[in-house]
Amino acid sequence: MNLSRIAIHESVEKAFPASLLAESLSDLDVSVERVENDAEFDSGDAVAAFGPGTGFLDADWVHCIRAGYDEFDVSAYEEAGVALTNSTGIHGTTIGETVAGMLLAFARGLHVYRDAQNRGEWTRLPYERPFTLEDERICVVGLGTLGQGIVERANGLGMNVVGVRRSGDPVDGVEEVYTPDRLVDAIADARFVALATPLTEETEGLVGTSEFEAMREDAYLVNVARGPVADEEALIAALRDDEIAGAGLDVFADEPLPEESPLWEFEQVVATPHVGAMTNEYHHDIAGLIRENAERVSRNEEMLNRVV
User: Fold this and answer.
1) Residues spanned by the domain of 29
2) Which end of the chain, N or C, is surrounded by fewer C-beta atoms within 10 Å?
3) What are the DSSP E strand ranges found in 142-285?
4) What is the greatest pairwise CA distance in the chain?
5) What CATH number corresponds to the domain at position 229?
6) pLDDT digits 0-9 by tens, 230-263
7) What is the pTM of this model?
């Protein structure tokens, strides 16, 4: 691959201003340009984009500015001989802090008080409702970068941490690691179940009716993975039937979350619009990955985070 141009696709605007990424990469020895949807690509081009786009398979390399690349047709990239890289490995802190915020909100009732503030009401939760996170059990499903970011902060809050990992190999800060076939055992006694696994054929619908039935009635689901990792209809049913206490959701089966979704109606749901990894420094993080790979390409070395 002889890299001659890095094209910053307008789709990155979903995450940050394209101009900021262009400025962060301006020191590279190749041309850096902002392009729109109708742009054409050729050999020597690299494209930085939020998701798949028209003409991308004519380039030599496409970089997804997100960790999740499930929207990309991996087979098509393989057939076309186009390199595809993603942005895994940089979201541990942001996702970890987002989950910590949700845990604290549920434990201390902060979301309820904010709702009351918006209504101009001075109210308190029932005495039995607030609790502390210390010594509560959290099961983190998926112990990659996102999961380990959650683990670190859960330990800082004094929680008991267990996890689920495909290999079952131990992870620092996790008391016990279960394999996916023991998911029900892992979540059965947890106050919180945090989903942080990639979306694959194996993880789609990983948490459904059986899992919600296995969870404690005072347990909360937190999903910062991908919406389809949890069966949304089963989740709604579990919330309506008080099988679980609530849910913190940053991802959904359909995004934006449709206006008619019942998830808007539950006080015990904290919903954020897929912003768990957002930070005003995100463009610098992405620039670092692109710069590293541009340098590796120039040295004919293996690319970082290469999916295809």
Assistant:
1) 5-90+279-299
2) N
3) 160-164, 176-178, 192-195, 220-223, 246-249, 269-271
4) 66
5) 3.40.50.720
6) 999 999 999 999 999 999 999 999 999 999 999 9
7) 0.95
